[in-house]
Amino acid sequence: MRGLAGPRPLSRRQRRPRATPGCPSLGRAGSRRRWTGRSVGGSSWPGAEPRAGNPGGGRSGRGRDPCPRGADCLAGGPPGPSPPQSGRRGGGGLGPTQPLVPHSRDRLPYQRRYRDHRENEAYRFADRSPSFGEDYYSSRPHHRRRSRERERHRPRKHPHHCRKRRTRSCSSASSRSRQSSKRSSRSVEDDKEGHLVCRIGDWLQERYEIVGSLGEGTFGKVVECLDHARGKSQVALKIIRNVGKYREAARLEINVLKKIREKDKENKFLCVLMSDWFNFHGHMCIAFELLGKNTFEFLKENNFQPYPLPHVRHMAYQLCHALRFLHENQLTHTDLKPENILFVNSDFDTLYNEHKSCEEKSVRNTSIRVADFGSATFDHEHHTTIVATRHYRPPEVILELGWAQPCDVWSIGCILFEYYRGFTLFQTHENREHLVMMEKILGPIPSHMIHRTRKQKYFYKGSLIWDENTSDGRYVKENCKPLRSYMLHDSLEHAQLFDLMRRMLEFDPAQRITLAEALQHPFFAGLTPEERSFRCSRNLSR
């Protein structure tokens, strides 16, 4: 009869909310907030290491901003929802008619270097571009072992959902060795996420022999192969998951890469070249030239010691040169960041820095390539509202004023700062706080941009709504300072670099420096003739 009368009322003990195990504390001491899932920024998933220097969470933690890509946005760890966002009044308080200032999530201290690999990976990918674009080489660790163990003991109720194995086509007249023939006839298999199951020694298209793995991510995986049709030359083969949305996005990326290859057959403009592409049993595969590590990976392995100024100058010149080529061909990259800029050869020398009393790596050759065109957009195509990874996102995107090629210039300015100092300029995952940081570092947002934006919830009478008496307000006030205050040396070439960055970081995209103008900036007068030359390192025309 109890079932007809409704459920039994909960007792006081049952109604009391329980704390989530492993969840870092949020807010001030004594207050408690409950997470509805696992914390990504807090590294609270099983097996995660505690934060360096922050066993109790609090201000040293790093939160994340909800990303429109949802679960596909984070490839390096399990996706988790953001902590609940609630308004609160600071010590000084706001007027009764003004909206409350939202509380930004916890984050790393501003001057802190990223010391924990797993924490840093979650932070970097917590709020990246909502488009399909992925890193060229993804070094993120695999997190599917636990799910595989669960699947092993789970009864199969729907066997028709499992993917069927298919047999590779192999010519009977092939003259390959007996061992290669056995490998090429091995059945094709996908795992439950749609990744192609491949092993070292496997062949694809009777041409590409897999010799190693370069990484794996949401989009699929990247393997190192020998191209037997080109004298066993080394290539990086990007194998897309056998999932419809990734397959379609890969076709769009291939169209962009074909356009780039058509306009730059000799690789004079430093964009990574596609040498081949094909469909392998539902997996779109793209073959690229084999390059070195990306510039963020090298920075991380060097304990986030910044690049020397001559290296920053050469890489900046190449970036401006490559992106000017894209812009002249009506193409905007939209997702520039250190992860998508790769060294042609990342070999390095280890030197001892007497000033810092530590060893540091110095890359021998600073030649780079721009990669990841999965989110590149032509001028005539539809422009989505949100583009770019958070830390490199320009103000016109945050304010939803529309964007064009100048958004790439803003991203380059943020990248150059990160190369120069070793940490990101805007360390946040929340729009309002991002805008406040911009004003603290670069000056006030132009009034005409404030009047045009639909995001009036961030403003009150033409000014940003922000209370400096809150913990977030004090954090920004103490750690964000004018751009030129970050100069390491008071010399001419350092001042020239900051002048170039300041022109790239203009609020108004119409007033932002163009890349053609940037290439003529006095900062690049110190380049050697060899550094100014752009010679093709490899011939990969199909």
From TrEMBL:
<comment type="similarity">
    <text>Belongs to the protein kinase superfamily. CMGC Ser/Thr protein kinase family. Lammer subfamily.</text>
</comment>
<feature type="compositionally biased region" description="Low complexity">
    <location>
        <begin position="169"/>
        <end position="178"/>
    </location>
</feature>
<keyword id="KW-0597">Phosphoprotein</keyword>
<protein>
    <recommendedName>
        <fullName>dual-specificity kinase</fullName>
        <ecNumber>2.7.12.1</ecNumber>
    </recommendedName>
</protein>
<dbReference type="GO" id="GO:0004674">
    <property type="term" value="F:protein serine/threonine kinase activity"/>
</dbReference>
<feature type="domain" description="Protein kinase">
    <location>
        <begin position="208"/>
        <end position="524"/>
    </location>
</feature>
<keyword id="KW-0829">Tyrosine-protein kinase</keyword>
<dbReference type="GO" id="GO:0005524">
    <property type="term" value="F:ATP binding"/>
</dbReference>
<dbReference type="GO" id="GO:0005634">
    <property type="term" value="C:nucleus"/>
</dbReference>
<dbReference type="InterPro" id="IPR011009">
    <property type="entry name" value="Kinase-like_dom_sf"/>
</dbReference>
<keyword id="KW-0418">Kinase</keyword>
<keyword id="KW-0723">Serine/threonine-protein kinase</keyword>
<keyword id="KW-0539">Nucleus</keyword>
<keyword id="KW-0547">Nucleotide-binding</keyword>
<keyword id="KW-0808">Transferase</keyword>
<dbReference type="InterPro" id="IPR000719">
    <property type="entry name" value="Prot_kinase_dom"/>
</dbReference>
<dbReference type="GO" id="GO:0004713">
    <property type="term" value="F:protein tyrosine kinase activity"/>
</dbReference>
<keyword id="KW-0067">ATP-binding</keyword>
<feature type="compositionally biased region" description="Basic and acidic residues">
    <location>
        <begin position="116"/>
        <end position="127"/>
    </location>
</feature>
<dbReference type="InterPro" id="IPR008271">
    <property type="entry name" value="Ser/Thr_kinase_AS"/>
</dbReference>
<dbReference type="InterPro" id="IPR017441">
    <property type="entry name" value="Protein_kinase_ATP_BS"/>
</dbReference>
<dbReference type="GO" id="GO:0004712">
    <property type="term" value="F:protein serine/threonine/tyrosine kinase activity"/>
</dbReference>
<dbReference type="InterPro" id="IPR051175">
    <property type="entry name" value="CLK_kinases"/>
</dbReference>
<feature type="binding site">
    <location>
        <position position="238"/>
    </location>
    <ligand>
        <name>ATP</name>
    </ligand>
</feature>
<feature type="region of interest" description="Disordered">
    <location>
        <begin position="1"/>
        <end position="190"/>
    </location>
</feature>
<feature type="compositionally biased region" description="Basic residues">
    <location>
        <begin position="140"/>
        <end position="168"/>
    </location>
</feature>
<dbReference type="Pfam" id="PF00069">
    <property type="entry name" value="Pkinase"/>
</dbReference>
